[in-house]
Amino acid sequence: MAHTWLNFKATHSFTNSVAIRWQVVNTGWAARIAKCLRGGFEHSGTEIWEHTLYKGKHWVECFAVDLKHGVSLGRSGRFYVNIS
Questions:
Q1: Can you give the pTM of this predicted structure?
Q2: Distance CA 23, CA 28 (A)
Q3: Domain that includes residue 47, residue range
Q4: CB count in 10 Å sphere of residue 44
Q5: What are the residues whose beta carbons fall under 8 Å from the beta carbon of 40, sequence distance 6 or more?
Q6: Where do the H-state alpha helices sit in 18-78?
Q7: Number of domains the chain contains
Q8: CATH number of the domain that 22 lies in?
Q9: pLDDT tens digits for 63-81?
Q10: For residue 2, what is the DSSP state?
């Protein structure tokens, strides 16, 4: 459904030196025309809100990163969202 908000939450049992990073990917013609194709990492903590502005197949993936050692500790796998 276009023009609504989705909330994604990550739960984990890691220590305080772990950060949660979100990769949010927009695809499709509408996002391209609006110059809003995405794929970078967001630093929003354990929760992220995303607006469903663009039709197409999009996804969100969560990563747990050990800030002290600079390594990835885990990832959620992709959560696909199809906007029509």
A1: 0.84
A2: 17
A3: 5-83
A4: 15
A5: 23, 24
A6: 29-33
A7: 1
A8: 2.60.40
A9: 999 988 989 999 999 999 9
A10: -
